[in-house]
Amino acid sequence: MQRILLTEPIRSKEGFYAALGRVRGCANATPRNLDALADFLRENHVKVIVAADLLLEPADYAAIGLVLRDLSIRLVR
């Protein structure tokens, strides 16, 4: 998987994790924290995440952004 498209409204870090888990189609694979998010993205070879309706608190953006930058993944809103 190279690109993920998230079209649902996402308003929290936990909502972001849940949306990713639903894209994959397996609730057991839903990331529960930032370390699990990194593992999920690495294992699925994600390069770009397109989030059409993403509105997070600045701290949540910063936390997720650190993981994405570390893995060289682009977040497009």
Helix/strand/pairing class, anyone?
alpha/beta
The protein's oligomeric status is: single chain
Distance between the termini: 19 Å
Quote the beta fraction.
Answer: 5-15%
Give the overall form. Answer: globular
Give the number of domains. 1
Rg (C-alpha, Å): 11 Å
Largest sheet: 3 strands, parallel
Unreliable stretches covering 5 or more consecutive residues: none
Q: From N to C, what is the helix and strand string?
A: EHHEHE
Lateral strand order in the biggest sheet: 1-2-3
Task: Please tally the β strands and state the result.
Answer: 3
Considering DSSP H and I runs of 4 or more, what fraction of the residues is helical?
Answer: 40-55%
Please count the helical segments.
3
Question: What does this 3D model show about the protein?
Answer:
The structure is a single chain. Helix 2 (34-43) crosses helix 3 (58-70). The chain has 77 residues and is α/β, with parallel strands linked by helices. The protein starts with a strand and ends with a strand. It has helices spanning 13-24, 34-43, 58-70; strands at residues 3-6, 48-51, 74-76. A 3-stranded parallel β-sheet has the order 1-2-3, with helices on one face. The protein is globular, with a radius of gyration of 11 Å. It has one domain (3-76). The longest helix has 13 residues, at 58-70. It contains 3 helices and 3 strands; from the N terminus they run βααβαβ.
